[in-house]
Write a structure and sequence with these properties.
With 310 residues, the protein is of the alpha/beta class. Helix content is 46%, strand content 15%. The chain contains 13 helices and nine strands. The relative contact order is 0.14. Bound molecules: fructose -6-phosphate. Fructose -6-phosphate (F6R) binds next to helix 3.
Length: 310
């Protein structure tokens, strides 16, 4: 499949309806996942506030994991060693184990795996990776998902200003810096990782209001500031306090913050429409740079090398 088709498929992915089974009682959620798969856990953490959600993106798991933990392993390939090891440790602790994967070793060890379609780059499968968890936990209903699908279907995101952003980053050889706002920290990070993996450029992400307590000092300074291209991601309707912060930061630090807004009336639609916009911008930047957005050979080679015995 052409990579652009993978990006376009997000709307269809949101119609996936296999869900993880939720235990009657649990005290906390631990989500294990790396890279493009791990993003689904980050989105969950931005979204779900009923119980603590802890993300694991290494081999270890928190000490508190026990039989009252809902442990969700997310790995598109099902063979990522950190996720497999974290899952093994959670099993030892007697947690409720669920998985979202296309198969691999993870599907062999977790009986309750939701199997999602193969043939995508893990990072392009963000809809398949998210829906089984969101719908399983009842975090979104059909009408919210339908609204989001309609927005993704209806808007031609592949036109300006997304090409313009990519063009300006390319022409100025800039490093993208993405500022999230409350509820959209995971999306800012997703943009960063898509710039990394699709366009093969370094990128950085952080969020309002935290950045006002540290990054602001560097923003105000002139040290290499021109080498960066700043985005701020906001929902369609932004809290007054956050809007004020964005305006004042931009004025005081004399910096252009290119604002990109989400679409629709829910956090879910804002998250997924912004993910989609970022995917397009990183794709256009890859095109400009003449690099293959699909290619992640080094990540794969690294995994092979790590599996070899010393
Ligand atoms: C590749 C990609 C990577 C992988 C990561 C973990 O498209 O996005 O970030 O997602 O290396 O692999 P999986 O997702 O198979 O567990």
């Amino acid at each position: 499949m052409e990579y652009i088709e993978e990006i376009r498929s997000l709307e269809r992915q949101l119609s996936f309806r296999k869900v993880i089974e939720i235990p009657d009682h649990f005290d906390n959620i631990v989500v294990a996942g790396m890279g493009g798969s791990g993003i689904a856990g980050m989105i969950l953490r931005d979204f779900y506030t009923e119980k603590p959600v802890i993300l694991v993106n290494s081999y270890g798991i928190p000490d508190f994991v026990d039989s009252k933990t809902l442990f969700i392993a997310i790995s598109y390939s099902g063979n990522t060693e950190e996720t497999l090891e974290a899952t093994r440790r959670a099993m030892e602790k007697g947690a409720h184990i669920r998985a979202v994967t296309t198969g691999g070793r993870l599907a062999e060890v977790v009986d309750e795996s939701v199997i999602i379609p193969e043939g995508y780059q893990p990072r392009s499968a963000v809809g398949f990776l998210t829906i089984p968890i969101f719908m399983g936990l009842g975090l979104v209903d059909e009408s919210e998902v339908e609204e989001t699908r309609k927005l993704l279907r209806g808007s031609d995101l592949s036109v300006d200003p997304f090409r313009k952003f990519a063009g300006e980053i390319f022409d100025g050889e800039k490093i993208p810096v993405i500022f999230g706002t409350p509820g959209l920290g995971s999306v800012a990070y997703r943009w960063k990782t898509q710039f990394n993996e699709n366009a093969k450029v370094l990128a950085y992400s952080t969020s309002f209001p935290e950045l006002n307590h540290n990054d602001t000092m560097a923003l105000e300074n002139t040290y290499r500031k021109d080498e960066f291209y700043f985005f701020v991601l906001t929902p369609k309707s932004v809290e007054k306090e956050i809007n004020k912060r964005i305006r004042i930061t931009s004025e005081l630090c004399r910096v252009v913050l290119n604002r990109v807004e989400g679409e629709g009336s829910t956090l879910f639609s804002n998250i997924f429409s912004l993910i989609h916009k970022g995917d397009y911008i990183s794709y256009f930047l890859a095109q400009k740079r003449g690099v293959d957005p699909r290619n992640v050979k080094i990540i794969e080679k690294l995994k092979v090398e790590l599996k070899k015995q010393d």
